[in-house]
Design brief:
The structure is a homodimer. In chain A, 24% of the residues lie in helices and 35% in strands. Chain A is α+β, with helices and mostly antiparallel strands.
Chain lengths: 153, 153
């Protein structure tokens, strides 16, 4: 498979995977994985689609979470993460790796916000418990059946 | 939710999740995640169901892979892994963590074997490229909607 085709299919997975599987590393060095909302999923979060389309980095990954969560504690201690997207019925998946950052730009946080999220962050997008993470991945691993393609970003 | 109910639902996830999401840690300390066959899935691998039911540790996780794969190199360097199972439609997931081991018992490898796996390991269950991993997890994290329950094993 050509690299351009791999990148195209990777973007399709980002835009369709039912969840984003985020792995952080805990203070004892163990990986901790959990499913997160996939904000890039076109069907689940159509409100953000146009915004993400306009971003310079097509592979930038945004994840909202509670500041008080263990994952935020983990990344403050160790920013190395992976985010995995997949279509398990088709044995297709793509993983992105790199060091995650915390988005400090409030204008950006106001955009990546939906009113019903007050169930998670009662005070809205300015809630100190609302943390927005961004990963500008350094590398990716694309899996399809027996094939693995590594690529850098 | 009572702990017994959490454990029951965790076992149900192990037996129904479409894949087992395995995370290893690479030599640079980055987590690497990929979907693996979920050998505990009752529908996908009915041949193994009775065998697993008889195991003393109901939460023991077995994963077959190529000895030559990067994940085997990772775990020889660092055995800390996580394995995640989920039902993304129901926002339910369970993660198991601990240090993985390589199964050396050939009788055991002969049991955890299916003839069509020769497409991965041409020489059969004794193929030196067939590695069977086992995780006897130390702890688990059960996620259901907004709830998280940690438990030890």
């Amino acid at each position: 498979m050509e690299l351009e085709e791999v990148k195209k299919q990777s973007l399709e997975l980002i835009e369709t995977s039912k969840a984003a599987y985020l792995t952080t590393i805990d203070p004892d060095g163990f990986p901790i994985t959990r499913a997160m909302f996939n904000l890039r999923n076109k069907e689940q979060f159509p409100e953000f689609f146009e915004f993400f389309q306009k971003q310079e980095n097509k592979f930038a990954i945004y994840i909202g979470t509670n500041t008080s969560s263990s994952k935020v504690a983990h990344i403050k201690n160790n920013p190395k993460i992976s985010v995995y997207y997949c279509d398990p019925d088709d044995f297709k998946g793509v993983m992105f790796g790199g060091s995650v950052e915390i988005v400090e730009d409030q204008d950006f946080k106001n955009i990546i916000w939906l009113d019903w999220w007050t169930r998670y962050y009662v005070k809205g997008p300015k809630d100190p418990d609302y943390t927005l993470l961004v990963l500008n991945p350094k590398y990716a691993r694309f899996y399809f059946k027996l094939n693995l393609v590594n690529f850098e970003l």
